[in-house]
Amino acid sequence: MAFLFSVAFLLSVCSAAICDLITDGVHMECRERYFMIAVDLSFTGKEPRFEAVDRTGAYAITEQYAAKCGYTVSALSLLGHVELRASYFSCHTDNKDDMFSFNFNLIATHKGKEASYALNKTCTLSLQWSHREVTCEMNYMEVSVRSDVTCPFGTNGHNRNASKAVRSATTSDWQVTFQRPEEQMPSMNVSQARKRGYTFDSRDGRLLFRTPYGQPDSLSTEVENVPVEAVYATVFSRQNWVVLMVDLLAACSMYEGYFDDAGYMMWKTPEALYPSVGGTQIRIGLNGDPMEQLIAEKRGYIVEKHKGTVHIGIPYNAEGGHRKSFVIGSLYEFYVFDLSVEQISLDRDYVETMLQFRRTLVTPLLPCTIFTHNQTVLKEQMFTIYLGDVPEDVVLVSIQLNEQDFTLPFANTSTYNIAEVLYPNGTHGYTLKVPFHDPVVKQKFFIEDAVLRFMLDINYTLAVLPGNESYYHSASIVALLTDVSPPAFDAVCSESGIRFKLDHQPFDYLWEFTIGLDVLTSDLADRRGYILSNDSQSLRLDVPLATHGYKYQDVTLKGFSGTFEILVRVRETSEVQTSTVKTCLFNPPEFIMCSTDGMMTVVANLPLVVSSGGRTLRMSLMDNSCGPKDMNGTRALFSFPVNSCGFIFELGKDYVTYQNEIFYNKNYQNMVSNDVTERVIVQCTYPLSSLRQLFTMYRFVSDTVGVGKIIRTVQPTAGLQHPSRKPTAGLQSTPAIARHAQPIAFVPGVRPSTRYFRVSRVHNLAGG
């Protein structure tokens, strides 16, 4: 394995006045057959440059110079780094006893100013040389052979062609001849070859030949349907009768590779580029770290030999590969693999050849599919949406929920939550939670189907690092809750009224509760005398008897039925969905009712109705023709229009009060018994706001029920007269209306010339 050198090194940036030490942004590593420098473009700027340094000076590594001298500069700007690879036999490398010393200058740009950093490293050969080493780099081919290896003369056609040039040679200087099939190429000396871009050298017991691709003397052909470039060079020298000749063949697969549908980057090379007895041994890997074939296959690589061709497949997620996201309208990704392949063969003369390929393979732009998965569980009453397969170089920066923008992370007071989920393969995801009942969620209730629909439109804004290119991913999520029924109250009767109770349900907010047309609120309850309590568990409403909203029926001396109704309406439309109606039987000893159609109904306990002689006295109102509807012992039932039976009325600023009185009579002529000591006054008071036209007709109609009172007064035994004193006690129906300080004027019960306001009739409470 290659000797690895980590980032524990020092870089120096020097000028005439100062030298600073730099430790960030550069990585250097010694590998089996070359030295590598990787530089972060964020450290160097967009266009870093390298210089090779030796005792004679510094030499700019241009594209042409790199191919000639054994350097490869690979700039991957989208990945954010540039890489320099230097052959152990590169031009300005000092080597001795398998020790190779490298000296470079890195020229970077910082804020428009150039700075030079000296990079120095010595590498030790970790794997002994084969007899013949062939390197197929990205921009050149390199062959080195041991100088003590002899090739049998005249064993193949290429040597026979070269022999003609050898026989015609007249000098002992080293000569080079290039060979092409069926073509005689003139020889030239090494100096001439070097001028044409070739490198010939002798290093530490090895002969070296290097050539850039595309030279005039190269041959482009196909071997087993694989494009191959080859250069056949023979180096020779004639020493009297002895000829020294070395055959140097550089042949490399030029296959560019392709990405298949199964997720593999495929590449291939002919197996027989160099003679081999039997098959060849294959080692493959990424980033200069080849591994044995069996190990590679266990890691998902494909290594197959088919019809003289070696097929290699790199899984897209192979460790050591590079991946980059890219936005062109949609989100794409591509993969970059620095492939290293070693192909070892042994010819019939037992000469071992190691053929090394270094290829940077790039996939085409591939669609990157980020997905959303609805993980909502209805009983949790919360949206749960997962955003998955987010690449490692893509981050979520903001989110839009139903057109409302939110930056991340959410505020601590937010009801939303988003959590990142990490995976070993480098991808990550985000889980978003939003409660159904949050104001940002759209809702629609389908009354006919009893279905509640929650809608959440999500727009994710993601950024591709490091350039922060924006990519948007949207999703529309719908949750349906079925069998969403309106709530129902429980109701119980009591002596004083009716109690309603409702246990809260998650969807109570869909509804509103009304008494008639009026929405039940704390303010309404206070004004009408209801007792309302509402907490997190339940809502309770106590409705005292005689408060607004009751409907009374079947009024007799035995009591009456009171009905109260709470309507349940759809909040958005006010459409009535259901109601809770409760009817209770009430039997108070006395009561007074003032109906909306102007009927006064009174049940009064009149103990003085039975005289001391045991006779039942005759009773009437102020008009003695208006008697009780029913009697039972001392209790009497009266029911009559308020504006009849000799009534008098008080007209105040905001109200009108109708008053009558119950009289005891012995006979028609002697109206009042001498021993009667009590007056019973009955009143009904209505707000003027409930009346619309004053006395348009004799029929009385009001929007609201009136407030009734039974008032008892003490009277001298001399006899009863028409009331002229203030009452001392009374029975009052609720809700109470504030009493006014101004004097009360009572008007005799005659038909007035003015008329009452006309309003719609609600319900007739009178039973007679």
- Strands, total number: 58
Q: Could you tell me the strand content as a percent range?
A: over 45%
Which class of secondary structure composition applies to the elements?
mainly beta
Give the overall shape, derived from the CA principal axes: rod-shaped
Organism: Oreochromis niloticus (Nile tilapia)
InterPro entries: Ig-like_ZP, ZP-N, ZP_dom
Protein name: Zona pellucida protein AX 4
Domain ZP: 593-768
Keyword list:
disordered N terminus, Immunoglobulin-like, 7-stranded antiparallel β-sheet, 768 residues, 51% strand, 6 domains, 58 strands, mainly beta, 10-stranded mixed β-sheet, disordered C terminus
What's this model, at a glance?
The protein is mainly beta and 768 residues long.
Please characterize this protein's 3D structure.
This protein is mainly beta and 768 residues long. It has six domains: 26-124, Immunoglobulin-like, CATH 2.60.40; 132-149 and 170-253, Immunoglobulin-like, CATH 2.60.40; 258-366; 370-478, Immunoglobulin-like, CATH 2.60.40; 490-586; 591-667 and 676-715, Immunoglobulin-like (Sandwich), CATH 2.60.40.3210. It contains six helices and 58 strands. Strands 12, 13, 16, 17, 23, 24, 27, 28, 29 and 30 form a ten-stranded mixed β-sheet that branches. Strands 1, 2, 5, 6, 9, 10 and 11 form a seven-stranded antiparallel β-sheet that branches. β33 and β34 (404-407) form a beta hairpin. The relative contact order is 0.06. Residues 1-21, 151-157, 668-674 and 717-768 have low confidence and may be disordered.
